[in-house]
Design a protein that fits this description.
The complex is a heterodimer of chains A (202) and B (303). Chain A is an alpha/beta fold and 202 residues long. In chain A, 43% of the residues lie in helices and 29% in strands. In chain A, strand 8 and strand 9 form a beta hairpin. Chain A starts with a strand and ends with a helix. Chain B has 303 residues and is of the alpha+beta class. In chain B, strand 5 and strand 6 form a beta hairpin. The longest helix of chain B has 22 residues. Chain B is globular, with a radius of gyration of 19 Å. The chains are: A alpha/beta (202), B alpha+beta (303).
C-alpha cells in the first residue's frame, strides 16, 4: 500500500473582508503509509499543482487524518520543502498552510523536520484548537495565541494584548508572517489568524 | 553468531587467498538477525572478491528451524556457491519473527517492509513488548529510515531482518533485534567528497561515522538531509535501546546503561558497506525489577 493524496477544491465562498476576492482554499488529503523521499516528492508536486491553479493567495489544508505512518524523509519532502518554497522570497504565489489530523507521533515527526530548518506550521489539535509546531519561540507563541483570540488585529491592539512594546511585537509578528503562519492584510493593516481565515472561507 | 562473532569471522576470512572457502556453521547454536544477515554479507563479499564460498549448515534443529522461519536459505543460495547440510524446513514467519530477511534494492522495497511490519508488528510490539500503539508506528519509521539509508547512501543492495526474543539472563525481558546490512561504499565513501577535506589526515572510517552519527552530516547539501540517523538515535534512546553502526574498520554505538561495550571501536577487520544493529528492550515501568518483570510475564502468560 502506498501513500497518496486526494485533491478537492472546496467551495470558493466570498469572504467578509478585503481578501475575499483573492483567497482560495484547497484541501490535500494524505493517506496511508507516507514513507520514502520519492513518495513525499510526488505528493508535494501534486499539492503545488493544486495551489498553482488556485490563484494569487491560497490557504491549503494538509489533512493527515488518514495517515498511518509518516517517516522523517517523507515529512521533509512533503511538509518542510513545501513550506520552505512558499516562505521564500521567490515563491510562486502566496500560499498558507494548516495541518489537520496530526496524531501524537505524526505531530512529533513534522515538528522535528520543521524545527531543524527554522520553519513553522499552524496545526489543528484534537480539541479544536490550533497550535504552532516547528521553530517558534515562546514570544512567538504568545503573539500567535493573542492573535488567535482576536482573530485579526492591528499592531497596536496586539501590543496592548501582549503588554509589550510596539516595536518588539512588530518584530515578532513580522517573523510569524515571514514564516507564513500569520497573514498580514495590508489593506486593513491587520494581522489575520489563519484559522479565522479558514473559518470565514467556509 | 551475532555482532561480536561477525567481526571475528570477517577477520578470519579477510586475507584468504584460496578460491574455495568453507564457512562451517555446523556447531552454531544461536544466531540473531545481525548474525544471519552478516553471513549473507560475508558470503556475497567473498563471491565479489572471486572466491567460491560455501556454507555448511548447523546441525542444531532449533537453529535450522529458526533460519528457515527467517527465510535464510533462499538468500543463502544466492550468497554462497554451495550450501551443505539439511536445513529444517519451516514456514517463514512465526510469533517471534517481525520481518524475515528482506532484500533492499529500491524505495519500493522500503514500502513493502513498512507495509509488512505495520501488518504484523503492531500486535507483537504491543502485546509482547508492551509498547504503545504510537511506539509501534515509530518502529516502522525507524525501519523505513534505516532501509532508505541503504538506497540513498550505499549505492548497493542490502538486507534487513528483525525478530523478537527473550534476553532472560542479560536483561530479564524481551527485546526486538534489528539488523540492516549492505556492501556499498560505506560512510567514509559516502561523505568523503563533501566533508573529507575538512578533516584532512584525520579523515577515517571512525571520523566519518562520528560525523554522520553524532553530527548529522550528509553527503547531500539539502538542509533536510542527515536527520534519519539522528531520529533513529533519539527514538532508540527513548526506549533504552542500543544502536551500533559498523562501517569499514570502525563501529560507533549509542550504549545504554545495560550494556558495557565501547562507544567507538577502531581498527576492526575491514569490511565494505555499513552494518547496523539495534536492540530495543521491552517497555517496563522503571520501578519493576527483573524478577518482577518475569513474574508479571509468567502471570500474564507472555513467556
Amino acid at each position: 500500500m502506498s501513500g497518496g493524496m486526494n485533491g478537492d477544491y472546496l467551495r470558493r465562498s466570498s469572504l467578509r473582508f478585503d481578501l475575499s476576492a483573492l483567497v482560495r482554499r484547497s484541501v490535500a488529503t494524505l493517506y496511508s503509509h507516507l514513507v520514502t523521499r520519492p513518495t513525499g516528492q510526488a505528493l508535494r508536486l501534486g499539492i503545488e499543482s493544486q495551489i498553482g491553479e488556485l490563484g494569487e493567495v491560497c490557504l491549503s489544508v494538509l489533512d493527515f487524518g488518514q495517515v498511518a505512518v509518516i517517516d522523517f524523509s517523507c515529512a521533509d519532502e512533503i511538509v518542510a520543502k513545501l513550506i520552505r518554497r512558499f516562505a521564500a522570497d521567490e515563491r510562486p504565489c502566496d500560499a498558507y498552510f494548516i495541518a489537520r489530523g496530526l496524531g501524537e507521533f505524526h505531530r512529533e515527526t513534522v515538528d522535528y523536520v520543521l524545527a531543524r530548518q527554522g520553519l513553522a506550521l499552524v496545526a489543528e489539535t484534537a480539541d479544536a484548537r490550533v497550535e504552532l509546531i516547528g521553530d517558534v519561540d515562546d514570544v512567538g507563541r504568545q503573539a500567535f495565541a493573542a492573535l488567535e483570540s482576536a482573530r485579526r488585529a492591528r499592531l497596536d491592539a496586539l501590543s496592548q494584548a501582549l503588554a509589550a512594546p510596539r516595536d518588539d511585537v512588530h518584530a515578532v509578528a513580522e517573523r510569524l508572517v515571514q514564516q507564513r503562519v500569520v497573514l498580514y492584510d495590508s489593506s486593513t493593516r491587520e494581522y489575520v489568524s489563519l484559522r479565522a481565515l479558514l473559518e470565514e472561507l467556509g | 553468531m551475532e555482532e561480536r562473532t561477525f567481526d571475528e569471522l570477517v577477520g578470519a576470512v579477510s586475507d584468504l587467498q584460496e578460491e574455495r572457502v568453507l564457512l562451517d556453521a555446523n556447531r552454531l547454536r544461536w544466531v540473531d538477525p545481525y548474525g544471519m544477515t552478516g553471513l549473507l554479507a560475508i558470503g556475497t563479499w567473498l563471491r565479489r572478491r572471486g572466491h567460491k564460498p560455501s556454507l555448511r549448515l548447523p546441525d542444531n534443529t532449533d537453529v535450522t528451524s529458526y533460519l528457515s522461519r527467517m527465510d535464510f536459505y533462499r538468500h543463502a543460495a544466492e550468497a554462497f556457491t554451495e550450501v551443505h547440510g539439511q536445513g529444517r524446513q519451516a514456514r517463514p514467519g512465526g510469533s517471534d519473527v517481525l520481518l524475515e530477511i528482506t532484500p533492499i534494492r529500491s524505495h519500493g522495497d522500503v514500502h513493502a517492509v513498512v507495509d509488512r511490519v505495520q501488518e504484523r508488528a503492531g500486535t507483537i510490539l504491543t502485546t509482547q513488548l508492551h509498547y504503545s500503539r504510537s511506539a509501534a508506528v515509530q518502529f516502522s519509521v525507524i525501519l523505513s529510515e534505516v532501509c532508505q539509508n541503504i538506497i540513498e547512501h550505499a549505492q548497493s543492495d542490502g538486507w534487513v531482518a528483525t525478530q523478537t526474543y527473550h534476553w532472560k539472563e542479560r536483561l530479564g525481558r524481551k527485546v526486538v533485534a534489528i539488523a540492516v546490512m549492505d556492501l556499498g561504499i560505506g560512510f567514509r565513501g559516502s561523505l568523503s567528497s563533501e566533508h573529507g577535506t575538512r578533516f584532512a589526515d584525520r579523515w577515517s572510517d571512525a571520523t566519518a561515522l562520528e560525523s554522520a552519527f553524532l553530527s548529522g552530516y550528509s553527503r547531500f547539501s539539502d538542509p533536510g538531509r542527515g536527520q534519519g540517523l539522528q531520529q533513529i538515535r533519539r527514538v532508540v534512546a527513548r526506549w533504552e535501546g542500543r544502536v551500533t553502526i559498523r562501517s569499514g574498520t570502525a563501529r560507533i554505538a549509542d550504549v545504554p546503561a545495560w550494556d558495557e561495550r565501547t562507544p567507538l571501536q577502531r581498527n576492526l577487520p575491514p569490511f565494505p558497506g555499513a552494518q547496523i544493529g539495534m536492540v530495543l528492550p521491552a517497555a517496563v515501568p522503571e520501578a519493576q525489577t527483573t524478577g518482577e518483570v518475569e513474574a508479571h510475564e509468567k502471570a500474564t502468560g507472555r513467556r
